[in-house]
Structures are given as structure tokens and as C-alpha cells.
Amino acid sequence: MTYHPYHVLDENRPSRWLITCDHAANTVPSCVGSGDLGVAPEDMARHIAYDVGAAGVTRHLAELLDAPAILSNFSRLVIDPNRGEDDPTLVMKLYDGTIVPANRHVDETERNRRLETLYWPYHSAVARLASRQDNTVIVAMHSYTAQLQGRDIRPWHIAILHDRDSRLATPLIARLREEPDLCVGENEPYGGHLDGDSIDRHAVVPGRVNVLIEIRNDLIATEDQQRAWAERLAPILTETLAKIGL
User: Fold this and answer.
1) By Cβ atoms counted within 10 A, which residue in 119, 134, 210, 236 is the most buried?
2) CB neighbours of 69 closer than 8 A, spacing ≥ 6?
3) What is the total count of domains within the chain?
4) What global pTM score does this model have?
């Protein structure tokens, strides 16, 4: 079976929304370490390798919004598509207490090979999908773990990350905070901008309306939870975008 570094869902859907999922998979392609980074399976199954549950939310949300979606098909431990190509964390050697043996001696040649075979094809596809309409709105779907090793528990159910473009983010935060059962974070559990990250590259720099959504991954561990969150978010996103008139 031919390996592809990304999956596109229903490219011809007519909506102006585009749903992206940079950390959709924990796949290690055979061209990297013969498909093995030397990381234990239980670690490859947790947040250090991918955004647990985010792919399922992305698929359901795209269907409900009648929008195309693009999902990466390589672990962020192989190379992180949500980092600029010069970011020192592009290829992680240590993440949340776990050493990544196959990355220990990655040199510039190997880094560039992963850029060429995985990172750039993904970003080229995102750019193509984003340019299909003049008024594309990008929703970047992510998830985060409830607690890093040795750190405090993260209380937020959902968080919106933003920095230089808050046209959609700020009113969306306000709308989500109207939901009585939600603890909503703003730029939590980390800040909303890195130079060269996906939103910067495909939305902020070209001026596209955008929002980055983070959901705590214990809340989207199952298919039913993923569908429920998508069903909750789709009308809120539609309502908020209409209200701001962009």
C-alpha cells in the first residue's frame, strides 16, 4: 500500500471552512527508522506522538460544516508540521520525559529529507486547499493532555489559541463562555503563536480568518465523544462567523 503523508477529505465540499489537523496521526513511515522511532508503543499511543482524538473531531466537524479537511499522516515525533522549518523543536529528541532514540543523531541531511518527503508535501496540500476560495476560513483542530508529567492538572475543557489575528478567536471565546458547563481557556495551556507554524503560514500571513481550537484529549477519547464535540462546535462556529460578518 502506497504511503501518503496526509489525507484530504472531500476536497470538493463547497463550504468556505477548511478544517486542518496537523497532529492527526502517530504514524512512523517506513522511510524513517524502518517505521520505528524506538519509542515504546504505550508512549506512541499518547499525546507526545499525536493529538489524541483530534482526527475524529476533525472528520465529524468537516462533515457537519460541509467542508474539506486535511489531516497529517505522520507523527509529530518524526517531524512537527506545526513548527517553522527553523524551529529547534521541529524534530524532538525528548518530549514529556520520553527520549526519542531515532532522533538522537538526526543531522541536517536527515532533517532536510524529512522536510522534503513529509513536511513540505503536507503544507503544499494545505496551501492548495486554503486557496480554493478567496474567503477561506481555517479551523486548526488540536488536542492537549490533561496533565504533563510533574505538572498541574489542566482544568480547561476547551481552549482557543490566538495572537496576531483575533477576529474570530475573541468572539468565539466569548460565545463558548456562555456555555455553563464549559471551562474555556484563552491561550492555554500555551500561547497562540509561533513564527512559521501552520496558522501563521496559511492564515495569518495571507490574511485569512482563522481559529485554533484545543480540546482536552480525555474528553475526546471515543468516537461518540468526538462526534458530540463536533456537533456542539459546528453551530457555534457558524453562528459566530455570521455574527462578526467576515
Assistant:
1) 210
2) 8, 9, 10, 18, 19, 20, 21, 58, 59, 61, 62
3) 1
4) 0.95
